[in-house]
Design goal:
16 strands, mainly beta, Glycoprotein, Type 4 Pilin, 0% helix, single chain, 165 residues, OB fold (Dihydrolipoamide Acetyltransferase, E2P)
Length: 165
């Protein structure tokens, strides 16, 4: 999830599906996105529904800046977005089966113990709980209710609690 600001108005943007096509939701309105080849590293082109969008992109440590169709957008980076790049790392809670998220039972910053309910998912017409496999702090929740996912998708990342000194 990312915060998108345009002309002082803040919106919530999230990727709601990766395959067979990328779908991005902005304020709960879904848009199909198809990346197109780019002619320069700071330029982007993509098909958004039936339109082709072209723009410039640059970033700093905390924000991605986009310029499209004479309009400027800024997207605030969240540290947990990069957490999803390596699902094999410690603290990763990945989907064992493909399915859909029914409900989320934790929040970023929550302290959990092994066995705590993190998510309720649905797979093969059955509800399947996703439980914490270790104790720690919820660092990232990378799915939302209603979102579908494939086997192996990173769902939640838990940062292991440091031992008390």
């Amino acid at each position: 999830m990312a915060d998108l600001t345009f002309a002082g108005r803040r919106s919530e943007a999230r990727i709601t599906r990766y395959q067979p096509e990328l779908v991005v939701s902005v304020d709960d309105r879904a848009y199909a996105v198809c990346p197109l080849p780019s002619d320069a590293p700071d330029r982007f082109h993509f098909a958004l529904e039936e339109d082709v969008v072209t723009g410039l992109c640059c970033e700093d440590d905390s924000t991605i800046y986009l310029h499209m169709d004479g309009r400027h957008f800024s997207i605030t980076k969240h540290s947990f977005l990069s957490a999803g790049l390596s699902s094999a790392s410690e603290g990763a809670v990945c989907a064992e089966l493909p399915g859909n998220v029914v409900s989320v039972h934790c929040a970023i910053g929550d302290t959990v113990t092994a066995g705590d309910l993190l998510l309720m998912t649905a797979s093969m017409k059955m509800e399947v709980p996703v439980l914490a496999d270790r104790g720690g702090e919820v660092e990232a929740i990378l799915v939302a209710p209603g979102q579908s996912f494939e086997r192996g998708t990173l769902l939640v990342r838990i940062r292991e609690a440091l031992p008390a000194l």
